[in-house]
Every structure is written in structure tokens, then in C-alpha cells.
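chain below, 465 aa
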Amino acid sequence: MSPASASGSLTPTGTIATSSDRRRVAFATVVGTTVEWYDYFIYASAAGLVFSQLFFEPAGPGVGTILAFLTVGISFLFRPLGAFLAGHFGDRFGRRIVLVVTLILMGAATVLIGLLPTYSQIGIAAPILLILLRILQGVSAGGEWGGAVLMAVEHAPRDRRGLYGAMPQIGVPIGLLLASAMLAIMNIIFPGDAFLDWGWRIPFLFSIVLILVGYWVRRRVEESPVFTEIAEREEQTGAPIVKLFARFTPLVILAALVFAGNNAVGYMTTGGYVQNYATNPEGPVGLDRGDVLWAVTASSVTWLISTFIAGWICDRIGRRTTYIFGWILQGAALFALFPLVNTANPVLLASGLMLLTVGLGFTYGPQSAWYSEMFPASVRFSGVSISYAIGAILGGAFAPTIAAWLQQTTGTSTSVTLYLVGMTVIGLIATLLLRDRKGISLRPGDEEEQREGIYIWEPASAPKP
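prediction:
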């Protein structure tokens, strides 16, 4: 029996990783990502449900809703800043320190939002402070994902990167599940005006408990073996972002478009649009707030399951093939979504959201492994984080705002469906322009191989070294 099979398996650097090491890393990435995205989704859900009333009431119901969704989108504009900072420090000083800092930053901003006075209490200062805290959340989110992904994938055996890469991915639907369930429970405990007064604040304040748990878990994880080898070889890139854009600009753009196709559709629920659309008493549905929150909670479970399955199956059929299958499922589910929501039946609403999240899972589960295999080791943190951040701006940043504007302008949800289908097609096209690189070496000594065979063509702007 080989040493690898006796005590563990080979990491991308060729060192031995035991089963306990891999479980610890997987658990840490799930917990940390869950905490980060619980904080992020609590805000987005609250924006769709109550922030138009609490912070933008003078603007009126329609404009107040759009302004509330704009605060969701504004944070995305600062994700690239977080990605640039995290990429720079992550490629120079390691993945783990970035993960700890981003976790604390996100949690602190979330707790402060829970303590924030409303417009009726301090006037225009309330929405200004809300936006500033949301910007801090955006900076944190821009840096967190790339670090979590690389910790998971760079610790994983070569033939199981999809599965281990799915661990930080499933933290996102778990975060949505916790956020929606927490708000649903608060809606029961604090019905009616009590929810507006205090009920919405408690999920934000609860974040302090999650921060402590996430911090403890992440501090116990060893540094990524790939970065450890880079540091031992003293090959850290002095200006990784400059190198990234000098050599891999087309790759950053295509990777961003892949994520944009998923993110725009995902933010119909994670950005709070469906919650607002389905509960608006002046809209076509007018469901009870609790019914909608439980429907979103149920859909987060199917999103979690499909994301995990997609991560597992992409180790067998490839990242690109899994994505193509996911785009087809996502596009088909979009045509069923609003007809089911518009029935004003909570069960059919949940069914529509659950169908949609299957496609979302298959266009999200393989992302960690595919992104990690796209970029050379010396710029991998920067490439993964910045592509993700740009994709979030192009996709989810203003998707709820665009959807709300389309609905108000056209008076029909069909326009929203066509917009989302268009984003899905963009994601599919970007997927088709990239090659599958399943199993490629991630070691810093194999950068020449990592720079080859990225696209289905070789663009002039991506010269070979």
C-alpha cells in the first residue's frame, strides 16, 4: 500500500493530507461561508421586506422599494475593492489571514445594522449610515469567497476538487436558509408592527454569535498547501493584480460572465425581489410574509442539495458539462417561476422556487473547482476573487432593482423572465468559450501548464510567456 493510501491522499503540492485534515478544512469553509452569507442575505431579505418603510418611507412605496434594492446593489460596486485587497494580500501573505479578517468585518457591519436607528428617529442620517455599513459588507464579501474556495480546493485530492470545492458553495444556501428561517421565526414571535419595531433587528444582532463560532473554526485551519509551497519557494508575486490583467484579461471577463448568468437569477430570492413581489399588498400576489419566507427557506434546501450534487458529479463528467446541463435546467425553470408565483398559492410558490434552485445549484456547485483550475498559482487568489466580484456586479448587483423597474414599467412579470433568461444565455455562451481543465496540476511549479489550453481559441491579448 502506498503512503498516500495509507494515511491520506496527495494534495496539489504532492504532500499528504489526512482525512481529518480534509474534514477540518471542509467544515471550516462551510461554517465560515455560512456565517458570511447569512449576514449578507439577512440584509437583502430585510431590504425586500421592511427597509423601504423604515429607511426610505418619505420616497413612497414604489420608489422606496427601488431605493431599498439599490442599497443591496451598491455593496456589489465595492466587491471588486474587497477582491483586489484580498487577492493582493492572499497571493502575497496567504489565504487564512484574509478569511479571518473578512469574517470579522462582515459580522461587525451586520451587528451595527441591527442597532441602527430608523429614518423616523434620526432622519436622513439613517439611510446614509445604512449604505455605509452595506458598503463594508460588500468589501468583505468581495474578499471572502476566493479565500474560502482556495482553502477548500487547494487542500483537496486532485480527483475530488469538485466535491471539496462544493463545501464553501453550500455555505451560501445554508446562509440563505438560516436567514430566511430566522426572519420567518421572528415574524411569528413579533407579528405585525412588532416585526417592524424590533423583530427584524434580532437576526442581525444574532450574527455576533455566528462570528465567534466562525472565528474559532477558521483559526484552527492550516494554511493552503499551495500557498505554503509558494512561500517556501519565495515565489510570491509582488503585484499579482497587474500580472493578472496583463496576461489573463479575457479569462477574467469570461469567468465573470459565467458567474453573472447564475448570480442575476439567484438574486431574485437572495436579493429579496421575490419576497417583495410576493408580499406586496398592492401587487398581483399579496401573500402573507411568513408563507413567502418559509417558501424561500424550503428552496434554499433544494439549492443546497443540488449544489452539493453538482460538485460531486463534476468530478466525474467535468465542470463545463455540468454547467451546460445547469444552464438548460435554469432556463427552463425561469419560464415556470412567475406563472407559479402569480397563482398566490404558497405551495406553488415554493415549488417554483425549488425548481429554479436545482438549475442554480448546477451552475454554482462546480464553480470553485473550475475557477481554481482556470488561473495559475501565482495569481490564483486575485483571479478567482476579481472574476467573482465583477460577475456579481454584472449579475446580481442590480438584478432586484432591474426586475422591480421592469415590473413597474411594463406591468408584467414576463419582462423580468426575459431579462433573466437573457442573463442565463450569456452565462451559457461564456461557458462554451472556456475549456474544461479538470484535474490540472495546481502546484506553483507547473504554471506553464496552467497557462495553456484555457480557451477554445487563443486570444492575442493572452500571450504565452
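The chain is about 75% helix and 0% strand. The first strand starts at residue 9 and ends at 10.
thats it, cya
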